[in-house]
């Protein structure tokens, strides 16, 4: 799984001009599911996104997590994150998980975040969405479950 995490002051997602998800302070998570991903990947990234200390403390240092600030999550499925642009000029999506399994793992990921006590809003799987993000910072990180799996015990 790959996630683009953006710290936000607020974010929303609309489908066909209708807002389907809206949050205040927190993070917007663009979530890509790749072939071979499983529940372990979803749980690892849910915990990482919730516990990552990316919010400023009283001294302005990035020292607080999403849970520490009572933040929210806007999770948006984005299969293009599983794409490759290594060859040619047209992206290849051979690495993207098939839609039914990707939807299942995305829902599992959302449930894992909620199980950690965080309120989650989502977009609509496979819909054309307008995502409105008011970046805070900007602060953006790319989280990847496979590249970080080997170092899980390191922190």
Keywords:
alpha/beta; D-tyrosyl-trna(Tyr) Deacylase, Chain: A; six-stranded mixed beta sheet; two-stranded antiparallel ribbon; globular
Structural notes for this entry:
This protein has 155 residues and is α/β, with parallel strands linked by helices. It has a single domain (2-147), classed as D-tyrosyl-tRNA(Tyr) deacylase (D-tyrosyl-trna(Tyr) Deacylase, Chain: A, 3-Layer(bba) Sandwich), CATH 3.50.80.10. Helix content is 25%, strand content 37%. It has 4 helices and 8 strands, in the order βββαββαβαββα. The chain has helices at 39-51, 66-69, 99-115, 145-149; strands at residues 2-15, 18-23, 26-32, 55-56, 62-64, 72-77, 120-122, 129-144. A hairpin with a 2-residue loop joins strand 1 (2-15) and strand 2. The longest helix has 17 residues, at 99-115. The two termini are 19 Å apart.
What is the beta-strand fraction?
35-45%
Quaternary organisation? single chain
Q: Tell the overall outline.
A: globular
User: What is the number of helical segments per DSSP (H or I, 4+ residues)?
Assistant: 4
Q: If classified by CATH, what would the architecture be?
A: 3-Layer(bba) Sandwich
Mean pLDDT: 93
Low-confidence stretches: 148-155
What topology does this entry show?
Blueprint: E1 2-15, E2 18-23, E3 26-32, H1 39-51, E4 55-56, E5 62-64, H2 66-69, E6 72-77, H3 99-115, E7 120-122, E8 129-144, H4 145-149
Parallel strand pairs: 3-6, 6-7
Antiparallel strand pairs: 1-2, 1-3, 1-8, 4-5
